[in-house]
Amino acid sequence: MAANLPNLLTLLRILCIPGLVLVILSDFPGREWTAFGLFALATLTDTLDGFWARKMRQITTLGQLLDPIADKLLVASVVICLVETGAIKAWMAVIIIGRELAVTGFRAIAASHGVAIPALFLGKVKMALETVVLAILLLGDKMPDGLAGLGPIGLWLVMALAVVSAAEYFIRFSGKVLRPSPK
């Protein structure tokens, strides 16, 4: 691994995942706040690694590969654990995780055709909302009075944005990716 601060932050995010999973699936007093704190730390590393990579001009091929993988591992792990706790329905998890796999696969196909697909605005909005909603769901009934209901409502918005943003990627780039190769 190219040892620079942004890549180390990405690695820290990945290393947070097993501990986060253990905390979410455990049953000890304060579990919700501990899970929230670990998740907040992991998502903070996502913000900082990109910022510092650009600011310190330490963008590496490894970082460009590892960062989105770390993001997807974090989100998928939390979503799957929240299915286990009953905070998310399994079919909702399939939509959220399925979208990530479909867009990642599409990007890989595009890359094999020499087409780079940047993160689009709706995808960024989806990720930001998803992070907030997962944090709310991790806190569950420990949310301040009246705010716990925001989690399920936000989850519906995340699913809608997941579908719409995936469609945007496919609509905007399928012409470049799926065209026949010259012989």
Helix % is over 70%
Q: Tell me the CATH superfamily.
A: CDP-alcohol phosphotransferase transmembrane (TM) domain
- Uncertain runs are none
**Strand percent estimate:** under 5%
Question: CA-to-CA gap between the ends?
Answer: 38 Å
Figure out the total of helices. 6
The profile of the biggest β sheet is: none
Rg over alpha carbons: 18 Å
Word description of this protein:
- It is a single chain.
- The chain is built from six helices and no strands.
- It has helices at 5-25, 31-55, 61-85, 90-112, 121-139, 150-177.
- The chain has 183 residues and is mainly α.
- It has one domain (5-175): Four Helix Bundle (Hemerythrin (Met), subunit A), CATH 1.20.120.
How would the blueprint of this fold be written?
Elements lengths: L4 H21 L5 H25 L5 H25 L4 H23 L8 H19 L10 H28 L6
Helix pairs in contact: 1-2, 1-3, 2-5, 3-4, 3-5, 4-6, 5-6
Summarize the model shown.
The protein is mainly alpha-helical.
Name the features:
183 residues, single chain, globular, Four Helix Bundle (Hemerythrin (Met), subunit A), mainly alpha, 6 helices
